[in-house]
Amino acid sequence: GKWTLGTKIGSGAFGVVHVGMNTQTGTFMAVKSIRMERAVMKDVRREIDLLKSIQHRNVVRYYGAEIDAKYLHIFQEWVSGGSVTGMLCKFGAFAPEVLRSYLCQILEGLSYLHSNDIMHRDIKGSNILVSNEGVVKLADFGASKKLAKLQGEAMMSLTMRGTPYFMAPEMFEERYNLNADIWSVGCVAVQMATGTPPFKDLGLSNPVALFRYIKKLDGALPCLKKLPVTDDTRLTYQLFERFLVRCFCPDPQKRPKAEECLLDPFFV
Q1: How far, in Å, are 160, 210, 211, 230, 246 from residue 225 at the CA level?
Q2: Measuring CA to CA, how many Å separate 233 from each of 57, 230, 236?
Q3: Residue 18 phi/psi, 5° resolution?
Q4: Which residues, in sequence order, are CB contacts of 74 under 8 Å at separation 6+?
Q5: What pLDDT does 159 receive?
């Protein structure tokens, strides 16, 4: 169909994301443009095949793709509220009610993905979008799928700008399964509750130092000094911390599945 690009809303190693408009219907969408010479076409095809198969309220919808002389353009649902990370920058840490609602929806989307044997691999605040109505949607499977292919070099080149703070310890060792996503949910939970990703305040210089620190924790929670506990919210945050203990279980096999997390007392 006919479409045109608007404001740039994001960029990464493999491409740029703009707001787009369908010039025939006037509707908005997110357009991910990937330079063909930089893209690993096998990965791109995998992303498109994956997106086509996904239909869930808490996962961004896929509309189609188009190739021109320089770019592959992938058209997806435009989520107007932006990312959780962006919201935290604007509004600060979320109140317990919002925290519970958003986490519940993240887990609903993740449960759907896992039931279809799809691992996200890159759950973090910037990959979780929120609509104006407060509907949460998991986004950016492209980056997550590429991680599988790039594991070897990625561990060498990752900086401390973002993703490593959300990575399960077994991902540093390149031996992981669906349960690594649950660790990342715990990290996003801390980010939403405090305004900062876990471990970021430690000032560690590289992923290896972070991995060593996490291994030493051996199941202990990351520092939660910033939780705004009051007499009214004390019980809620106690339940929240118990939920985090389950997410941060060092043994991946003992971590709860996404659907089991939804039955946690924090949500019930």
Answers
A1: 21, 19, 21, 13, 19
A2: 30, 5, 5
A3: -120, 160
A4: 31, 32, 33, 34, 47, 48, 51, 62, 65, 142
A5: 38
Q: Which of 68, 117, 122, 201 is catalytic?
A: 122
pLDDT at residue 40, rounded to an integer: 60
SS3 126: helix
How far apart CA 220 and CA 213 sit, in angstroms, is 11
**Homologous superfamily of 84-261:** Transferase(Phosphotransferase) domain 1 (1.10.510.10)
Take residue 188 and report the two structure tokens written for it.
Answer: 């996003």
Q: What torsion do the CA atoms of 173, 197, 117, 63 make, to the nearest 10 degrees?
A: -130
3-77 under CATH 3.30.200.20, yes or no: yes
Q: Which pair of structure tokens corresponds to residue 227?
A: 């939780």
Q: Which two tokens stand for residue 82?
A: 């932006």
HEC sequence for 33-51: EEECCCCCHHHHHHHHHHH
* Catalytic residue status for 122: yes
Q: Which regions in the chain score pLDDT beneath 50? A: 142-162
Please indicate if the annotation marks 2 as binding a ligand. Answer: no
- For the record, the structure tokens of 100 come out as 């519970």
